[in-house]
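ingest -> validate -> predict -> emit
validate: passed (alphabet ok, no gaps, 400 aa)
predict: started
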Amino acid sequence: MNSNINRLVSIAGKETRTIIGLMSGTSLDGLDVALCQVSDSGLQTKLELKQFCTVAYNDTFKTQVKEIFSKRNIDLEQLCLLNEHIGLTHASMINDCLKRWNVTSADIDLIASHGQTIYHAPSSLHKQKGFTNATLQIGDADHIAVNTGIITISDFRQKHIAAGGEGAPLAVYGDHILFGTTGEARILLNIGGISNLTYLPANRDFAKVTCSDIGPGNTLMDAFVQKHFPGKHFDKNAEIATTGSCNNSLLQALKENSFFDTTLPKTTGPELFNLQYIETALKKSGTEKLPVQDILHSLTKFTADSITDIVKKYWADKTDLKIYCSGGGMHNPLLMQYISQQLPGTFISTTRELGIDPDAKEAVLFAILANESICGNPELFSSANKNTPAVCMGKISFFS
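emit:
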């Protein structure tokens, strides 16, 4: 038997596995690196987050990725080169983290790499006959494995699509495993570039779980800030938006898109919610001459409304509902203020209440997916509710 297969069998048989979860989102802030200890699998999974850091991307790296990110027409050579380059960059960042944590590669069983999403194309968005859902994440995992000396599992979204899903959001699997409980209905709300949520019923019945993208998170706000405030990547502490006010005409124009009329679950991305989306809404509402502060405030309110409208539409009857937040948007005080105001009486906190650093949550969830790939049983998800195929995901890259 190939020694790599023996190694994999040995890892699967361990009582506790040490797994590094990686996440690089559409915001391009940096690479989230979560060092996790994971035991068992499925609903018996226990996870402890041992270390976490976000390694910032430099401006050159961000510029290179943005040249091909979420664009229909790109330089194919640049795409080819960046697939390798991102893998090598992530490997270097992992090695730096291990040195900082005084951990060796031999101490790590697996790396779970999400990769860098370049384009997300569900059929509801591309609308091309003869083509199904599609998505593309780059940052080759063979380069990560070889340059770290650690078995790497990657490209999780392709299996989801192959089995009939849309490739996103994948949080439902880890949310159900880690955060599902009896006696409390929960929403796990992640406000990244795109906002998504997982509803977990109080009886832990997977057939009643809902996971969906719900609209823009930070992507419109960040893109607008980067265009109008050179040198700034986002509106830190909502310092710009709070100097403006919400324009209702613009807000209504922003909401006029068929995406918001589509029932859950659904997926989307910056392919829809981008600067052109803002420009279209400004023209439609005749608000092109609004102060930039008012536009940014309106974008913040738009994100808040996109979230709370869904919660009120689908779970207004859940008086005991608790919401646990994660993602960069939870650090925006104006956004969180609007969400709280529009859901009066609803308990709103972060996943820290549940024992997981909310900034690390997405990286942790990919560590869970890697653990399920090696040790799990997809029958855990056999109720197969819409957009949640019962599969274990990820491709395996050996380092030798």
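The CA atoms of residues 31 and 122 lie 25 Å apart.
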